[in-house]
User: Fold these one by one.
Assistant:
Number 1:
Amino acid sequence: MDFIDGRPNDLIGLVIFSGQSFTQCPLTSDHAVLKNLLKDIKSGALKDGTAIGEGLATSVSSLKEAPTKSKVVVLITDGVNNSGSIAPQTAGEIALTFGVRVYSVGVGTRGMAPYPVQTLFGVQYQNMEVQIDEDLLTAVADATDGRYYRAVNNRRLESIFAEIDKLEKSKIEITEFKRYTEEYLPFALLAGLLFILELVLRYAWLRTLP
């Protein structure tokens, strides 16, 4: 939300993915709508899995025709690519082709973490190893002139968004043109005519008057 608020003039879209990808919000400048759709995201809405390649490819597809100079995908994942028909490397090549820069973010602590598992007794949490393919995410980001980050907690994720925001803010150069128009000529002509008229009146018409 803070990242969106910090870029009020950008076209921003939202793609969600797990075992498949879905465009939650197409590119828009209406950030109120975007944030409402962000709030509506629910875990389990899509097929289980981690289709990083499809998520990235869907994002690039939304961006490729965008009328903007800078095109960026912030790819956030907490797992290893294990689903989808498009490999992350292939999606990275597609991004490079269309001039899209990828900032990839691996989210999750290092080591073990509680993970919700559906059991006969309902959803229970079990400690499982956090697996993030950092080499893959780094390679995809590097290939598109982007960067890979690891967020092990909320504070680190916040600082990552702040850094990406700073990297993507470019200085706007404004060239100012000044056009000068000479306006003295009509006044000079008028003054000349008045001067001639004054001479005519002084030495001709007024001189003949008694």
Note: The chain has one domain: 2-167.
Number 2:
Amino acid sequence: MIRHIVMFKIKDEYKDEIPQLVENFKGMKGRIEGMLDLEAGADILYSERSYDLALTTVFEDRAAFDAYQTHPVHLPVKKRMHEVRSGSVACDFEM
């Protein structure tokens, strides 16, 4: 299994959109073959080192993770995140 973790910093002008961005992520759950789990949420601490929101997903294998990258359910969510983010970090590892 592969765990995919991404944290996003959102541009100031889009911060009010964070709840919708989280819902966009959650809307992918159960709609992408090979994705076993998905969790998403907004930061609640607002510390200096905090990111604004996070996405964690679990895929059954590397092939499922690779297919996710171009899946039609994922692409509009990915596109929107590229528009509203000022930065992101990711970590992907085998479980």
Note: The mean pLDDT is 98.
Number 3:
Amino acid sequence: MSAYIVVDTKINNESEYEEYKKLARPIAEKYGGVYRARGGKLDIRETDLWTPVRIVIIEFPDLKSAQAFLDSEEYAPVKPRRHKNADSTLFIVDGGVG
């Protein structure tokens, strides 16, 4: 069953964040990740809990693949580049409907 990494990002340094994106994408794809949304136009309807800024959604084959990407040795040196150049909220959601 698919799982999704969802990230809401406020980019603080555009040029450096572009480098992060170039480095992160092939690693995500190695773990089966497929980008379903990446910074597209938002039509925000409700904001009781938070107001999204820039949403990225990456679909993975399953929860373990999404976790493996985020915890991978390949991604470990790339992740600080995101932290240095953007503020973000990131979570994994299991695609199961319950």
Note: Residues 44 and 50 are 10 Å apart (CA to CA).
